[in-house]
Amino acid sequence: MSPPANEPARASRLTRFQWHVLGGMLLTLCPLLLIAIILIVLPLPPLTRWLLLGAALLASAALLRWHLRRVTRSLSTLASLLEALREGDYTLRGVPGGALGQVIYDVNALAQRLQSERVRFEEASHLLAKTLGALDNAVFAFDHQDRLRLVNRAGQVLLQAEAAQLFGRGAAELSLAALLALPSCQIVQHRFAARSGRFEIRHAPLRLEGRNGRLLVVNDLGGVLRSEERQAWQRLLRVLGHEVNNSLTPIHSIAGTLASLLQREPLPQDWRADFRGGLGLIEGRAAALARFLDGYSALTRLPPPQRRVLDVAGLIRAVAALETRVPVTLEDGPSLTVQADADQLQQALINLLRNAAEAAQANAGAVRLRWRGEGTMLAIEIDDDGPGPPPSDNLFVPFFTTKPGGSGIGLVLARQIAEAHGGSISLEARPAAQGARARLLLPLSD
Fold first, then answer.
1. What are phi and psi of 17, to 5 degrees?
2. Cα dihedral angle (244, 250, 252, 257), rounded to 10 degrees?
């Protein structure tokens, strides 16, 4: 195995340190060596010899003390830096110099890097905490022993406890073990401390402190469904109220007029005509209200599609032949087939084509009908030369209509049929001309 690339640099620094220590030790011996040479070369009196030897010993001792202080000062500085790093204080720095100057420089660089890493970690942790706190989903992180190590605010609300009360508790103790045992992406009925309802359960493995852990995400579907359901009911009731009032208001007004007419003495000569006209209006509005309710029943009684293989070109040609009020141009398309209910799909196309014809009739325009394959989907487009779709978000709301005498169920029924077949419907303005474009998407046959 080849040594790491930084091994030569470490060896070089160690060699410099060894030479530095060795040089200091040799320096402490220089006075003794010098006196030894003098004593050998010069014939000095015994007293002088002893004095020179004592002076040499004192000089060597002083140099040795200086050398030790120099080495120990570097070691002490290094020990203090390492102690600060061990305690998590990355702000302390040493002054490079002495026997371990290069090592202290490296420790300073390490402290600087660790300090930068800590700042980035704290920023990332703060960002993670803010992100988890903003999530509506409850997030739980468990360690290898299924003890809770992290929970966001939504999770605390769901369990009706603060984070300090939850940390370290087991999944079984928190009634979450059963959710961890389920396959991911499951929708279950579960009771938490805060509420019970339908929840989507997702979990995934993760690593905590080098060991396997698990992440659990709980999405409260009940709140989302209740909000969507409430909005749908509000839209429906708004349209229902509008349509019912359109019928009941004139009925109430005409009935009051006829009642006041009967109280006159004597009756006017044309009272029979007034009564016939008033009763006729009441009958007409009652019939309109009955048709409205029949339309509502039609939406709720749509049966599941009876699928069979249909030729797209033949179906579209048959539908186009039914519209005679405005010119209908049928553009040639490819030979394609779909698995669909012929009656339902024909009804959806008739509704779309009728809306397009009525819009084009207002501008004395025409209708164009085309189809093509888009990947695995069939796209049927109906363009009209009318004024364009109305600027409203309620086009696919039951009983909403912008046409006088309209029922408001044509588009809704067409969309229900399309979605029952795994497709969709959209109504938008034509991109390069005046008018609207109805677009029906359906899966092609395999």
1. -65, -40
2. 180
Integer Cα distance of 429 and 383 in angstroms: 9
DSSP 305-340: P--EEEEHHHHHHHHHTT--SS-EEE------EEEE
- Residue 31 CB: number of other CB atoms within 10 A? 20
Note whether 341 and 414 are same-domain residues.
yes
What is the tens place of the pLDDT at every residue in 366-406?
999 999 999 889 999 999 998 888 765 555 655 555 555 45
Are residue 111 and residue 140 in the same domain, yes or no? no
* 233 and 204 part of one domain: no
Q: What is the dihedral of CA 101, 102, 108, 111, to 10 degrees?
A: -130
CA 419 remoteness from chain centre: 25
DSSP tally for the chain: helices H, then strands E: 11, 12
Dist CA 439 CA 349 (whole Å): 10
Does 266 share its domain with 161? no
Among 259, 277, 300, the domain boundary falls at 300
**Is 204 inside a domain boundary?**
yes
Question: CB of 42 within 8 A of CB of 70?
Answer: no
Number of domains in the chain: 4
164 and 287 in one domain?
Answer: no
Q: In terms of domains, do 82 and 176 share one? A: no
Q: Within a domain: residue 407?
A: yes
Strands 436-443 and 328-330: unpaired
Q: Specify the DSSP class assigned to residue 435.
A: S
User: Which residues of 192-277 form beta strands (DSSP E)?
Assistant: 196-208, 211-220
CA angle, 136 as apex, 130 and 138 as ends, to 5°? 90
CA torsion through residues 107, 112, 115, 116, sign: negative
Q: Does 286 map to a domain? A: yes
pLDDT in tens, 142-197: 988 888 888 888 888 888 888 888 888 888 888 888 888 888 888 888 888 777 77
